[in-house]
Fold each of these.
Amino acid sequence: MLGALAGFLVVSAAAPVPVADQHGFSDVLRTRAGLLVSSADGTVRRADGDDLPVAATTGATMTALAASADGDLVAAVGDGAVTTSRDGGATFAPDPSGGRIHAWAAAFAGRDLLVFDQDGVLWRGRNGAALREVGKRLPARAFGAVFADARRGWVVGEDGMLAVTRDGGESFSLLDGPVQGDKEKRGGLRAPERREISGAVHAGGALYVSSAGGVWRSIDDGKTFEHVFVYEQPRKICVRMSARGAAVAVACTGFETSLYLAADGRTFKPVPVTDSMHLMSVAFDADGGLAAVGAHELFIRATAAGGRIAYRSPTVDEWIHVAEKIGLEERPGGGSLLGTVRDEHGAPIPGAHVSCPGYAEAHPGVARETETAANGEYRLRWPPRYIVLTVRKEGFASVSLQRDAESDGPTRIDVVLSRPVGCSGVVLGPDGGPLGGATVSLSQRRAADKRPWQIAGARTQSNGSFSIENIPPGEYVLGATAPGYGETTEMVRAPAAAVRVRFGAGEIFGTVADARGEPLQAIEVELFRSADRGFGPLARVDVDAGGAYRLRGLSPGECSLVVRTPTISLENLSSEAGTARFRLKPHEGPEYCMEQPVTVGSARLEVPIRFDRQPPITGHVRDRAGAPVGGAVISAQSATRCPAKGTHAADDGSFSLEELDPVTYRVWAGPVRDPHGRSASEPVLVRPGAKLDLVLGER
């Protein structure tokens, strides 16, 4: 959501700019005093019909709103400002600490205001009192927060962060959310693209989170998720959500199809609003209607049947004028997408919802969705060069198809919808016994994907059984994982029942110790497939108090065993039997990392790990004339999953790379803002203890 807010709360002049030159609405919230809207122009506004008069002025970009469950307390937070209300949003007063807080998320735990700043630091205002800094509680920037009651809540943010608290925000623990982050939570590996969880809401006893892929739903407090709404507009995301009873609405940043409503909390349907774009937030108003806000000061009022733009900036009018000026008439013989939607018996399906995101953004007036006619036919104008077509109809399983558009004529895509089916079975451990608490995923492989895309999931019962419903018939990759176990997969064809998934018999175990032979405790052990560079681990486990680890249920193959210190750990704060309270704690002390190739077979394999102290890599940096280059940057990058190292050369050109891991490094030196036009040295491959003379080249 940070990317969305930064990109869509547009600044109309080069920085630095006066706040008045900024425009864009970031959040909307229903309070006792009416609908409130936070704005990038440094104001909080209160809806009066279709008008939005100013209710409070802060002088800073405002990013989020929050209200207590009883409605008495309201807060607006932003980039260097916090303003609060004790009368349900009727009047506001600035918080004394607001100028020090740069926040994108806030929530109330009971009557305590929690504000999460951009560095993961928590600020708390108890029962309407001024905010006080509590300390760092989160490993990443927070973009949304929600509480189900005074003690139980969740915070979401960048890098796929999902954290839960069960003590009113006194402590947090990380959960394995549904979105892959920019870095894996424990591994530090780069994902193919930046992913973040943008919003969170609690409705009907379920937790909902939103991101670039749509909306996910969890009925077990965030332990497992079901992907209930797939949003497939390229480079667009679903941002903030709102709930009323079991109904859930979500605002997304696409064109035309940017507002969605699920009256039952599961089936999301578009709310058509002509010329809508870049929505950031949505709220249910007092009579059950919807209010949505977005970039370019867009304010929308809507019902399930559709909506209208009640208020917008001149920028939106300019975009609409451009679209009308271009003229969106179809070219003869081309520029259209058409086809017929039928059931598995060949009968046409009327009233199916057909959508195709990704149209040229300069044409916000083009319809990107339609419904099939009585004969099952549909037609859309001006499809993108690469088509992602989604077809939905109640009572049928949804279908998404991808292909390139025809260059010299209309593109025809016929679609067959099938009745939804299910897949059920049992997960077995290596010994053949049922394995409860395992996570089961159902995925389909799409063209050009290195790995299948997960479309559904479940968790096994104590007897190892699982059941996944509402999927289209076809071939799937059924996968199972469990803590301390590997990953096992089976190919299945749905509908399928009595599927048996069994973990492999391979096992790796050992003890992790330091140079003196003393067992290490704050260590995690992960197993990766050697061929799957860039993907997550097959199995992961923390060492026990004696430094021992054990990975079970492994399938044969060439792998890499990665043993390292986690950058973030959970500090146990439990004080009573039967309770579990944790706090995120950055690692302190020596950091270890080692990657070792292993061959997994069908038997137990002992792999002891010992971290011997590694000597530094030392040397000098000179230019081609032999003169020392002080301040040069020396970089040492490993070909393994262990982190890179770096340092600066002293005035005499000498350097020493310390705290090295027992791996081979690729070392080179580069100048910093060098006025003589020198380039980086040639990289060399060395082990710890090497002595180097690095010579800068010439451009």
Note: The chain has a mean pLDDT of 82.
Amino acid sequence: MNLRCIQVIGVGLTLACVAGPTPAQEGELTPTNQLHYPLNPTLAGMLDSAERARKAGKWKQAATLYRNVIDEDHAKQTAGYQLAFVDSQRTPGARSPRRRFKGITQLAIEGLRSLPPEGKRAFRAAYDYRAQAEFERALEAEHPFRAMALCYELYPIATNAPRVLETMAERSLESGRLDRAKRLLERLLRHHADELDEPLWIQEKLLLCSIGSGEASAVRELAEELGAAQQAGAGQPSDQGPQVLLGGKLLPVTELVARALEVQAVRNGQRHGETPSLAQPRGDAAHRASFDQPVSVGAARFRPLRFARPQVHNGTSRSDMKIYMPSRPTNPARHQGVVSRGNLFLALADRIMAYDLNSGESAPPIRSVTQTYNDPNPKVLFSASLHQDVVLASLVQDVRKDQSFRGIPIKVQIPIRKLVAFDSGRWRWLWSHDTVLSKTEQANWSFPTAPVVHEGVMYTSAFSIEGWINCYVAAYDVSTGEPIWATWIASGQVEQTMFGEQATEPLCVPVAAANGVIYWSTSFGCVTAVDADTGRPIWVAEYDQIEVRAPQGYYASPRVIIWENNPPVVESGTVVVAPMDSNSFYGFDVETGEAWRQPQRASGVNADMKYIQGASDGRVVMAGGNLVKCIDVETGKLLWKGRLVGKVVTGRGFVAQDTVFVPCEDQIKVFSLSSGKPLATIDAEVTGNLAVCGEHIIALRADGHLAVYQNRGFREYKQR
């Protein structure tokens, strides 16, 4: 076969893959990037029938239809949870509307909860016996918590539903998982308050969880509400200020708040003998990079040291999609670390390294468990997370081989990354997904980002290449790496060679976790929210994608990716995303997935934006080039912007109380979060990605240099 024929066939295959099988609706322009979702029109039709029955007052029929939908969505023969179309919104100038979907089970649960008392009685008359049998099986299951979560999902308005939630909360309290217990108790009060015999007792448990979690503001609010309810119930006005009867003692609200602050102080390392840790590089699982303590950048603790060598590109611009030039200090920083026992842990593409934060001395070498790999992908965020003493990271375990025909790429190298766990207390490897998942359906999955860890469970994003690229959100046990659940969200495509093979590693960002929900921007045109306990999709919402074009001639046609790798940020009821495969950034309502959107870069408004710096008090700060912008998370409106004269933003900063710290080439610029007023310019030899850990401020620069600065504000905070 001659070369011209090969070219024609290759282009044809590529266009077929990019276009996909789904035609555009009449009157619409053809979508540039086709996405595949786990849609089920049959179950969506059953949901419509259930809605009509509910509106007509046919309670038994409505209850039966909703239950059948949930059973079908949980059937073992299906590929997992499925979605139903909800609505769409057209962006001016866009080729296709942005669609919004909801999970089939989620819609059925919402429908059941909307039933009036007569409808709930009809449901209970038909299904209470099944709900009780399912609950009893769950109590005896190998993993009772997950089994109870699925039981509640199957029978959310059964008579025993409050008992199921309360039992889950009690099991969580017994295992020390206070945040999980807190959100389960909140769900119990939100959906079943009128069914509880002693709602005040549930409120007391909720207050104890908040104290144990160190949430001072939540403790004050809950204590005042509970105290008022107790006094009203006893018919006794309080003459000594707000008080709460807790554990048989009458305690002032101020004392309970003080106890919560004490817990917070211990966690932050403010008490003598306590060593602060940094479990998530961006401060928390919601990636807010917001620290409730004063920060003042002081002197460097040691001379800057190099932890990694710049990556040198040794391919040709025509044959290699991933061109990563030797790093300069102004290049985008792509490393983040975590801190445990006074050591900073950094993940590179193929290894984990550790350094003493006070001296900069290298900790004992950590034996490599992967092949050596110099990663040329500039959009990978090398990061880690921490649970107690266990460091979790993504390392390259294998590389898909490249192949060419007379210099024309057929396949390119694509790394397959796996999650690994390192025990920093015993200084040994704990497990690797390369072996844990080797005999499962997830054996060929790649995990390009570090997971988010919360109370012994890690949540992460993943993809598999099976013609299309399938995108997943998954949960695993931290101690063993064993799967808990995995949910397929969507399938899409990246740039391809003329032979129809992927020409680049798929883009991928970390997930975020907040209030029992996992949020993820797929980098394939949509954002999703899934339940943390079961993996149930709550909603999926699309955004405007950069077009994936067919190859031009013999070579792939790469997209111009402007955004750096930014995980979703959850702040004040909104999840803010800056997808790498989009020219805009968006805010999605955490409950519904409804969105606001910032203009395309073509207007010049977002032309330089690269990083999400941090979020607090209903505001999110973004930066890039020589511009800093503060956005209202509820509306997407610009609150203020600041310019960096003669300087360029070099990484991700943070928010500390009412101040924003933005890294530049050799300085850190400080702005007021509330007004945008410039507050200070701090000279710093090394900047890049910044993080705060107690008395340390960590800086990781693009060219592989590390610096640790004193946090002078921490000493004042500790004394106070």
Note: Residues 1-31, 312-326 have pLDDT under 50 and may be disordered.
Amino acid sequence: MVGLHFNAARMDSEPDSVRDYERQHQTNSTTYPVFPEANSTYVFDWSSVSDQVKENFESHYSGFASKKSYKICTQAGIVYAKRCLGCIVCSEEDCGYRVRPHVNASPEHLIAKEGSCKNCGNVLLIQSCSALIIWRHGEDVGILEVKGAHNHVDPPVKKPDMVAMETLKRRVVSQPSAGPKKILTSDVQAGDMPIWNASSVFIQKDKLGYYRSKILEKEGNRVKDGNLFIELQAIATKWPGYVRKASLGEESLIVLQTNFMRKVMLDNLSHIAESGDVAAEDCFTCDTTYCILKDGMYLTSIICFAPVIGGWMPIYEGITAGLSVTDFSAFFLPVFEILHAEIPWEFWKFFKIVADFLLAQAEGFKQAYVNFVTESTEKGRRDHLSINVLREQATEMIKGCKFHFGQSVERVTRSRVIISKESEAQFKSLCFQMISAQTQELAQQSINRICEKWPQMVRWLNWWLQESVARMLFACFRDNERHWLTTSNPSESFNVDMQNCIGKGLSITAFVVGFHRYMEYYEARFESVKTGQISGYVPA
């Protein structure tokens, strides 16, 4: 009831409009303060500020760790307030170690969880704060007001504001092939403003990579090149059936598959269907790379084992402009069309593919399968389809790469921040016991032991335990697949070999021509091994 009384008092004292409040506080601003100053007021005129500033305001963005205090509706508009939570610091003044308080945890609990300072080992202290940050929403203007002083150092920023994201977006769109490491180093070498000046979050390579991938997923580089279409037509005339699909513009998808690649793919599936069992060599693997193509285009390969040559070879190649669910859905849809045309029975029981843990790829795979089955079913029978059943069938076809999980475990232990050298072997053992357990109960036992001994690993663990990932990785969710291939490394190795033979940083046309020659080498090797001859063929 105290909060309600406080809100009512606030309502009585509000000006009739936000414009009236603006006239009382004439401090106009065109930039949004990440850390607004004490006892200050910022007025934003929506007609003169950027969309990013307005979005920061409407999302109540603040660099300070803050918790909702109250929200009220007045004649002037919505008023939203947050109370600053201060900052957790090291007791040694010269240390500089800082921890951002959590909204849903008390400072004492967080200090107990953190333990001592990670830099010098001294105890941690909470610098409390009573400052109130208020956002007043109006139709024409918005007002950001700070009441009280922040008698503490600024805490680490949790996420970049929209202005910083727009800065990173311009950098990524101008150089889509540049990874986070190149973005961080190229700015300094070129004398440009470092990207971390936009937000301190970007100084961490892993977080910069995360936000870069988000931008690429959302934006993509859509192919809008009239000359490319003409060149692809000429290639399609020279090698009929090679360019299976060329959709330029918004979808931006090019699918390549020679007749030889198609034959190997279908022979592999026919063998599985006849034997009724899926061995490691019968699995397909999938991998995406951005090194081979320039201008931010992505190349995704599906490969399978060819017994005749005793090695792995590509059977389906796709070029996309992004890494979104939509991009991968468009990539996988023609695969299901091929399977259905050649093997019309329940191919989902035989087609098994190992992929890494790019969630957009897995979700795109499921979405493509649902869309394909729905579109292939007569309209009168579509009402009888269950989307959940179709997604379950798609989930049965895709498996996660155990090698990528192992890499993540290795990175966590190598940092030595949470896992000590003495407990490294135990942690690794529990992680692999968890994913190899044949029942959910046994897997849960390993999970409980990890959480009890290393509580700081819960967030890392939760990512692997989310259903979309666990269903791809945990043995207890994947019956009768103990002999499956457990890694997508063959497709990654193939992409490296293809890069060495064809080159990298290629235009789309140069790659399409070079890849056909590369596949001519595979076909020649296939035929020479099949006839008992030794091939002296070298790709042109």
Note: The chain has four domains: 2-86+128-147, 162-218, 226-399+506-517, 402-477.
